[in-house]
Amino acid sequence: MHSYSLAAAAKINLYLEIIGSRSDGYHELATVFQSIDLVDKIDLRLSGNDSICVHCDHPQVPSDRTNLAYRAAELMKTEFPDAFAKYGGINITIDKQIPVAAGLAGGSTNAAAVLVGIDLIWQLGLTQAELQTLAAQLGSDVPFCVMGGTALATERGENLSPLPDLDNLYVVLAKYRNLTISTPWAYQTYREKYSDCYITDAQSLAACWEKVHSSPMVRAIAPKDSTQIGKLLHNDFERAVFPEYPQLMQLKAAFEQARVLGTIMSGSGPTIFALTETPEQAQLVKETVKQAISDPELELWVTKFIPTGIRIAK
Ligand code: ATP
């Protein structure tokens, strides 16, 4: 086939703990990723020449080499020169539905879709593990976006342990349209405030990973215990981000008032999400929060957990 349309899922973090600092400058993390049914559509087509082109109408998404989808195609070109010589370049069209710089891995999931799509178009037959190794070169969230579903991630976020699928939860997402947060800024702010609590020695780190693998959140996922999952939602970034953006704390309080299973910021923010057990409850929570905070800049979405990251679109 000369073209593929792929659906690239956003992620939320059900749990995110910043554990320490690494010698490569990144942070040691423990996080539980969850794919949600908020997707960008990525169309990939052989360009008929040796160019890589990205088209995206969204004003905040670059169409040049800085687009993560472009970088994914360039990586495939470098890694598989024979396939590139045989098939040529790729045109990539991104229909952006995932809010940008929102803590939902929008760029990362686009890059993951390009890796999966080029593997199909160039008929490379890469394994999931091979795709994830390539993905890790593009960013810490990209390997999870290739895999999708529910997973515990450690180290920079690229060391993944799949967890049982959660298919029984609905999500209400809320984000102020005019508010974006840069992930590097969030890490820097966290480091300035809390680096004295970082774990640095190898022995303490190993003990920490062991604890994380049997943590209450991980144990609540296997039996799909939605009440516990809601109660155990956690994100260390809130401590760094909320003091700078008090409107996010108010948004979280509005979700709490709406009696949800739990509510938390996703990734480095600024999206706040809440969990419910049914789509009807999610719709009701959306309306309640919309009324409580009558700001026209506040956007809300109802969606659900899904077991896949990248899938071929219908
Ligand atoms: P993460 O949760 O992985 O930290 P995010 O959801 O917070 O990511 P993105 O939506 O990926 O953030 O956007 C971060 C920055 O990346 C934006 O400033 C945007 O301009 C740039 N960017 C590059 N490529 C893309 C892409 N394909 N889609 C969205 N943003 C992109």
The end-to-end distance, rounded to whole angstroms, is 15 Å
Label the CATH architecture: 2-Layer Sandwich
Percentage of residues in DSSP E strands: 25-35%
Q: Bound compounds, please?
A: adenosine-5'-triphosphate
Largest sheet: 8 strands, mixed
Category by helix and strand content: alpha+beta
Alpha-carbon Rg, integer: 19 Å
DSSP E strands, number: 12
* Number of alpha- plus pi-helical segments: 12
Question: Class in CATH?
Answer: Alpha Beta
Whole-number total of structural domains: 1
Low-confidence stretches: none
Average pLDDT? 95
Can you offer a commentary on this structure?
This protein is 38% helix and 28% strand. It is of the alpha+beta class and 314 residues long. The chain has a single domain (1-314), classed as Ribosomal Protein S5, domain 2. Strand 1 (3-21) and strand 2 (27-46) form a beta hairpin. Helix 1 packs parallel to helix 3. It is globular, with a radius of gyration of 19 Å. It starts with a strand and ends with a strand. The mean pLDDT is 95. The structure holds adenosine-5'-triphosphate. Adenosine-5'-triphosphate is lined by residues 60-62, 66-69, 94, 100-108, 110, 141, 183, 267-268. The site of adenosine-5'-triphosphate has 22 residues, from helix 1 and helix 3.
Give the topology:
Layout: E1 3-21, E2 27-46, E3 52-56, H1 68-79, H2 81-87, E4 90-95, H3 106-121, H4 128-136, H5 142-147, E5 150-155, E6 159-162, E7 170-176, H6 183-194, H7 202-213, H8 216-221, H9 226-232, E8 234-235, H10 237-241, H11 246-257, E9 262-265, E10 272-276, H12 279-292, E11 298-304, E12 310-312
Helix pairs in contact: 1-3
This protein binds adenosine-5'-triphosphate.
Adenosine-5'-triphosphate is lined by residues 60-62, 66-69, 94, 100-108, 110, 141, 183, 267-268.
